[in-house]
Amino acid sequence: MSVLTATRADLSVLGSDVTVKLADGSHVPYANFDYAATAPCASAAARAVNEILPHYASVHRGAGQLSQLCTKRYEEARETLREFVGCRPDDNLIFTRNTTDALNLLAHAVPADTTVLAFAAEHHANLLPWKRAVRLPAPSSPSGAVTAVHSALRELRRTEPDSPLLLSVTGASNVTGELWPIRELAAAAHLYNARICVDAAQLAPHRAVDIAELGIDYLVLSGHKLYAPFGAGVLAGRADWLDAAEPYLVGGGATAHVGDATHDVRWAAGAARHEAGTPNLLGAVSLAAVCTELALADRAEVEAEEEALTDRLRAGLAAIDGVHDLNLFGPEHPRIGVVAFVVDGVPSSRVAARLATEFGIGVRDGLFCAHPLTRRLLGARAGRSAVGACSGGADGNTADVTAVRASLGLGSTIEQVDRLINAVRSIA
Questions:
Q1: Of 363, 382, 355, nearest in space to 38 by CA
Q2: What is the layout of strands, in order, in the sheet containing 338-343?
Q3: C-alpha 397: how far from its chain's center?
Q4: Mean of per-residue pLDDT scores for the chain
Q5: CA 230 vs CA 26, 61, 112, 361, 404: distances in Å
Q6: How far apart are CA 59 and CA 383, in angstroms?
Q7: pLDDT tens digit string along 5-45?
Q8: pLDDT grade, residue 382 (50/70/90)?
Q9: What is the pLDDT of residue 392?
Q10: Is the pLDDT of residue 255 over 70?
């Protein structure tokens, strides 16, 4: 179903009635604060899967009515996603497994001599796939990020005047939730004839994104962070590099012609070129169903509700002695519903375990697949405190230090936020 033809918005998620057993044997409603890792499944996604399952058949493979129906639904899902992320008419939109898969596909597709710039503040998915990479230090401000890009691209254009350049940057940090200055970074990239890719894995579930309006070249996202946890992701953007690259995977569906000779192969153009094999119909349809509901909703109202919950959580944690949240751009910078924090004197793994076993609260502890950034933030935290972050100490040694991350979204409530605050207070 296209976002233009749906008639209602349903932003409910599954799991609100799930209870968990505590260490004392009692049961309590589960409070999920791990949205940044995997968001709960939207009711709309579950309905979409249940509706298509009785008609489940091959996509792009058969003449039967069910196969034709499934092919139609799969391509309708693609069009829904194109609308949702604001694709230009000639952009490709390729279904992948997740954001990591999408970024690896783009890394495979960029011209061989492309230099890629990425900040040390990125998720590993955006740090590790690039063959020729320049890693910029994590900036301390949005303007610092823009200035760093100008400086780096200016130097690269001096030394590599004709080489392809790509800036790949997050839209919202998976560690701090802070929003990055995408529009300004895109303008800086284009000033030096470079392209920009935005990792919207965290951004898209919380803010409207529009490729054309933001002026970006590529965008990637994950279904399992967008309330459709069925193994579907997206790479959307300019077609030329994607159409010129060898297929990401080779096999059925990616070919326009296979001859008798070993090398007599002509690859398909467009999305099919990089979608070899039987596609993930359920993932595409469920993700499209969520995007339909989000497109119909009052996004400003949804964002305001999430912002109020996030502010309540941050204020509650800040009022607890010995609890400190992590930030890169400063405590007042706009962010999505992601809060990383440390408790002085208590290892984060112990905080997370006690929240789970004593209070029925699910959070994440660790370095969040963004080790350089999280270690920097923990080091800065330790350097500001005589006690230090957890066991890090005043010397700033954070080798064994991690943080706790609480993340929220659709389905989160004031009661859950207050429960988390009170639980952390009792632990601290």
A1: 363
A2: 323-325, 338-343, 403-407, 364-366
A3: 29
A4: 93
A5: 32, 22, 32, 24, 26
A6: 56
A7: 334 589 999 999 999 999 999 999 999 999 999 999 999 99
A8: low
A9: 36
A10: yes
Cα distance between residue 408 and residue 32, in whole Å? 8
Predicted pLDDT at 400:
64
Catalytic machinery residues: 369
pTM for the model stands at 0.92
Quick one: tokens of 270?
């467009």
- Angle at 141 (CA atoms; ends 135, 145), nearest 5 degrees: 35
Q: What is the spatial distance between Cα 419 and Cα 417, in angstroms, rounded to a whole number?
A: 5
Q: Which tokens in the block code for residue 292?
A: 């339909």
Residue owning tokens 């012609």: 257
Distance, C-alpha 396 to centroid of its chain: 30
Those residues whose C-beta lies under 8 Å from the C-beta of residue 189, and which sit 6 or more positions away, are: 149, 153, 165, 167, 195, 196
Location of structure tokens 């359920």: 282
Which pLDDT value is given to residue 101? Answer: 98
**Is the sign of the CA dihedral 108, 110, 111, 117 positive or negative?**
negative
DSSP code at position 36: T
Q: Which pair of tokens denotes residue 307?
A: 């912002």
Residue with tokens 């303008």: 187
Task: Please report the pLDDT score of residue 1 as a whole number.
Answer: 35
Question: Chain centroid to CA 307: how far?
Answer: 18
For 374-394, letters b (16+ CB in 10 Å) and e give bbbbbbbbbeebeebbbbbee
Confidence (pLDDT) at 398: 45
CA angle 238, 227, 342 (to 5 degrees): 100
262: Cβ–Cβ under 8 A, 6 or more apart, which residues?
none
Q: Beta strand 195-199 with 361-362: parallel, antiparallel or unpaired?
A: unpaired
Whether 14 and 39 have beta carbons less than 8 Å apart is answered as: no
Tokens of 369: 């697949």
Where does residue 7 rank: exposed (0-12), middle (13-18), buried (19+ CB within 10 A)? exposed
pLDDT in tens, 118-137: 999 999 999 999 999 999 99
- Identify the weakest region by mean pLDDT among 56-70, 202-216, 378-392: 378-392
How far is residue 421's CA from residue 310's CA, in Å, rounded to a whole number? 12
In DSSP terms, 167 is beta-bridged to 117, 196
Alpha helices, H only, 201-272: 211-214, 239-244
